[in-house]
Each structure stands twice: as structure tokens, then as C-alpha cells.
Give the backbone structure.
Amino acid sequence: MSDCLFCRIVAGEIPADVVLRTDEMVAFRDISPQAPVHVLVIPVEHHANVAELSAKAPQLTAKLLDAAAAVAAQEGLGDQFRLVFNTGAEVGQSVFHVHGHVLGGRDFTWPPG
Ligand code: 5GP
Ligand code: ZN
């Protein structure tokens, strides 16, 4: 999908700080990080959101979760990370190529501390 921002990142048409790449997955740093570690993990194959991905490609969904955990470990977060899939414009999804936000490196508990 040439009009999809993340397909264009996969294709190398738009530069990104890639931290992990396999035949099926790409992970790159978010351009506007909300935490010390903020990496987006996406499948190479285009699906609009995580619901569509899990319905149409369950094995790829499992691989995406594995890749997210691998990124967290690689980034030094161990098993302490937040994984977010915004699904739908009303909850803030702005890029309609499924992506997991791997977030960590700060306190996410509420109230903080
Ligand atoms: P969403 O709001 O759809 O869940 O997340 C989209 C994310 O993509 C946002 O956190 C935004 O900062 C990030 N983003 C948007 N455009 C680019 C870009 O060109 N490069 C990178 N690395 N991240 C982007
Ligand atoms: Zn795409």
C-alpha cells in the first residue's frame, strides 16, 4: 500500500530508526516518544489494526507479540514494559497499519511512585 506511512517505512522509502527487522516484522523508534523507550513493532504485511490482524493472521499476531517482547528485552526493559495497540480513530489510532507501542523506562503506575 503505497499510501500507507508504515508500508513506506518497511520499504525503506521513509527513514526510520530500525531496532529489529525480520522477514515478517519491523520495529523502529517512535518519532515522538512518550517514554525513554518507545518502539513501534509492525508486521511487514499490511493490516489495519490488531483486530483485523488477529482475525486474518493469527500466527502473525503471535509473532508480533514475540517481537514486542524481544524488543523490550533488547532495549533493556527485561519483562517490564507496556504494550499498546490503539484500535480505531476514536481512541487515538492515527496510522492504520497495525503497530504495537512498546513503552518502558519510566513509572507507568497510577498514582506514580
Ligand atoms: P497511533 O496514534 O496510531 O497509535 O500511533 C502512531 C504513532 O506513530 C505515533 O506515536 C507517532 O508518533 C508515530 N509516528 C507517526 N509518524 C511517524 C514517522 O514518520 N516515523 C516514526 N518513527 N513514527 C511516526
Ligand atoms: Zn501499511
User: Anything to note?
Assistant: The mean pLDDT is 97. The helical segments are 5-10, 50-56, 58-74. Residues 5, 14, 16, 28-32, 40, 86, 92-95 surround guanosine-5'-monophosphate (ligand 1) (CB under 6 Å).
